[in-house]
Amino acid sequence: MSQNKFSGTGVAIVTPFKKDKSIDYPALEKHIEFLIQNGINYLVILGTTGESVTQSDNEKSELTKFIISKVNNRLPLVLGIGGNNTSAIIEKVSKTDLSKIDAVLSVTPYYNKPSQQGLYEHYKSIAEVSPKPVILYNVPGRTGVNMKAETTLRLAHDVKNIIAVKEASGDFTQAMYLVKDKPEDFMIISGEDALTLPLIALGFSGVISVVANAMPKEFSQMVQLALVHNITEAQKLHYKLLEFTEQLFIEGNPAGVKAALSSLGIIENNLRLPLVSVSEKTNHKIGELIKKIKS
Fold first, then answer.
1. What is the pLDDT averaged over residues 259-279?
2. How confident is the prediction for the chain on average, in pLDDT?
3. 59-65: long-range contacts (C-beta < 8 A, 24 or more apart)?
4. DSSP letter at 133?
5. pTM for the whole thing?
């Protein structure tokens, strides 16, 4: 499989909810079309941004089937299957119909803080049973554990089925060692919107983005310009989106991006507890920044 299908801009798609907190499928279809028409490269289903941890197994299954159906082979699809119980993830990967999915994204185990050897064994075990390529996801700010560059690189070299890492450590030294020592066909993907431009300049192959939910055209253009080393033009879009990007995360994700999508008239601004909508002040600021970007 060509890993090039995961270069550029992937979007960790939100899950729209109605006022009663049930999944809003008409809004989801509208959002999918908005993303596809504005040039994104692939979709990530059931990520953190999709509030996957608040969904039942039945909801996750129905949501995945719906997105597969509506995308209808127009874009590659990545499915989030992660957790901190290795055997449960292995079972989930084994039992999930992945025939229409292009790769599995699996976050590092959270809360129980495995050692680097534990992380290695965890991912090796998952990759051995997965019928589809595996993308590692390192996000220490959420999980409490950082997968070091040497562990990621060891997996990249040892396990053929592991094709990429979504790296969201915020550590530029770690990022540079990943690029420097990776196998030629292994991809390093940004997991941080605000750092995507400098990370691509270092050798990253793109991003799995939150911001591109709301600004797919602008963010995708910035990424594509950076990938062809047109840094001057990419910088213009990066700085145009910078304050907007900051505001989306100021009260947590996906609260900020849902406020933005609501302001754009694509979804209603509803989240499931323990997440709540952003404050009126932040909501107003996000709305003003959208007008400024679009003017």
1. 98
2. 97
3. 59/23, 62/23, 63/15, 63/23, 63/28, 64/101
4. -
5. 0.97
| Contact residues for 43 (Cβ-Cβ < 8 A; gap 6+) | 10, 11, 13, 32, 35, 67, 71, 75, 76, 77, 78
Please tell me the distance from the alpha carbon of residue 36 to that of residue 42, in angstroms, as a whole number. 9
Q: Are 19 and 268 in contact (CB under 8 A)?
A: yes
Query: Pairing state of beta strands 103-107 and 77-80?
Result: parallel
Strands 187-190 and 103-107: unpaired
Burial of 173 per CB tally in 10 Å (0-12, 13-18, 19+): exposed
Beta strand segments in 134-219, E: 134-138, 162-167, 187-190, 206-209
Written as one letter, the residue type at 193 is: D
CA-nearest of 234, 253, 215 to 35 is: 215
* Domain limits, the chain: 3-229
CATH 3.40.190.10 fits 3-229, yes or no: no
Q: What does each C-alpha distance from 141 to 6, 171, 245, 289, 291 come to in angstroms?
A: 24, 11, 17, 26, 31
The DSSP 8-state label assigned to residue 258 in this structure reads H
Active site residues: 137, 166
Dihedral-angle region of residue 46 (phi above 0 means left; psi in -120 to 50 means alpha; beta otherwise): left
Average pLDDT over residues 171-190: 98
Give the pLDDT band of residue 1 (cuts 50, 70, 90): very low
Whether residue 41 has pLDDT greater than 80: yes
